[in-house]
Amino acid sequence: MIGRMFQWMAASPPRVLVFGFAAIIALGTALLKLPVMAADGRPTPLIDALFTAVSAVCVTGLTPLDFAGHWSFAGQLTVLVLVQVGGFGFMTLATMAAIVLRRRITLRERIILQESFNQAGIEGVVRLVLKVIRYTLILESAGAAVLTIRFLMDMPPARAVWFGVFHAVSFFNGAGFDLMGGFRSLTGYVGDPLVTFTAAFLILSGGLGIVVLSDLAEYRKTKRLSLHSKVVVAVSLFLILVGAITIFIFEYTNRATLAGLGFGEKLMAAFFQAVVPRSSGVSSLDIGALRQATQFLIVILMFIGASPGSAGGGIKTTTFAVLAGAVWSMIRGREDVVMFRYRLAQERVYKALTITMFALAVLAAGTMLLSVTENRHFLMILFEAASAFGTVGLSMGLTPELSQPGKIIVMLLMFVGRLGPLTLAYALGTRQKRTLYRYAEGKILIG
């Protein structure tokens, strides 16, 4: 029986990813349950330890507990390791270990890596893993150094170093965990350009994906970007620009957010708030005090999410671009979706549509279930569900007040969001047989 179960799990790469992440979460939960992990020396309730482990491995950052106040240094370090593992992906770490031990990477492992990084083929996936490790360590180290220098102005050296390292890893991997305490996030640094722009740089770098980072790093030598990189950069800049302008306009006179800041600080806060919904749950503004229009805009940005190849969730920027391109082509009466003078295969459009419909179904189901278990305003519930599914970690204050059924629902949303609804569907579904025939064409009225 057990042998058959393992055989079923190993039958497809998506199943390996699903059960691999589940195993890491189980290990993380067991560790976080230990009394030494809590600041008060008492075991953390199982549901809260599990929630924190899921949130860390799925690089989300939603937490039912005051992170800085509840966890000891050992607990905080454990969460940070889980965030790094979740950001890398367990297959990346396994491949790194195999390379260190000089073990050959098998074809099956390459296929799983291809699925893990959402690549079109297995060619070059091992080189991609090495790039992931190299760029991650370089960017996290640089971010940690800058943040440490800034935090040295506010705290003792040892604490400043820990704050710098923790937040650099958390920001780059798109996790919303912070050590500020009291669920305040970065509101105390809303007018600080060094913290704001360093955090924004790390969040953007982590959210672009390693393929795009590699293309950008080698641009001076190659003088070209792949179509994927062009689309990701263009859509990311568009979403940040539109988001920042809209937030600036909506919140300009809001006394609880931007109204009390200087003009430059307003621009900086609006920019940062447009960046973070892409993948990270830190915030320099009080999310609960934002106007409803702004909160709904952030829901949309969280649903779109980060880019393929990153640890962020959502439907991804490329999926949004393909759908927008398909709509534009339909409006103009053209058959093909064209981007940067390249025609996209019809299969890409179908996949984008499938991912979006799956994501909408998951988000709608999660929101409806939370509406049953939690007696809160609908927008607050939708916001929390979108944040969990997009593995963002922003919260209007609902997570610490969730009921036990509500916590389970949010955990499932984070898990599905990290793996991707399509990956989960492939993992749980049966292998599809290729059809050797086509049905006659039919016509229905649309619109």
How would you sum up this structure, described in words?
The chain is mainly α. The protein has one domain (2-426). It has helices at 2-9, 13-32, 46-57, 67-70, 73-88, 90-100, 107-116, 125-151, 157-172, 193-208, 210-217, 219-222, 227-251, 263-275, 292-304, 317-331, 346-373, 378-389, 404-419, 421-428; strands spanning 338-339, 342-343. A two-stranded antiparallel sheet has the order 1-2. Helix 10 (193-208) runs parallel beside helix 14. The radius of gyration is 22 Å and the shape is globular. It starts with a helix and ends in a 19-residue tail after the last helix.
In short:
The chain has 447 residues and is mostly helical. Helices cover 63% and strands 1% of the residues.
Task: Indicate the topology.
Elements: H1 2-9, H2 13-32, H3 46-57, H4 67-70, H5 73-88, H6 90-100, H7 107-116, H8 125-151, H9 157-172, H10 193-208, H11 210-217, H12 219-222, H13 227-251, H14 263-275, H15 292-304, H16 317-331, E1 338-339, E2 342-343, H17 346-373, H18 378-389, H19 404-419, H20 421-428
Helix pairs in contact: 2-3, 2-5, 2-7, 2-20, 3-5, 3-19, 8-9, 8-10, 8-11, 9-10, 10-14, 11-13, 13-14, 13-15, 13-16, 15-18, 16-17, 17-18, 17-19, 18-19
**Dominant shape:** globular
- Rg: 22 Å
Which range best describes the helical content: under 10%, 10-25%, 25-40%, 40-55%, 55-70% or over 70%? 55-70%
Derived from helix and strand composition plus strand pairing, the structural class reads mainly alpha
Count the strands? 2
Order of helices and strands: HHHHHHHHHHHHHHHHEEHHHH
Residue-averaged pLDDT: 85
N-end to C-end Cα span: 51 Å
Stretches where pLDDT falls below 50 for ≥5 residues?
A: 5-11
What fraction strand? under 5%
Spatial strand order of the main sheet: 1-2
Number of helices: 20
Counted up, domains total 1
The biggest sheet, with number of strands, parallel, antiparallel or mixed sense and barrel status, is: 2 strands, antiparallel
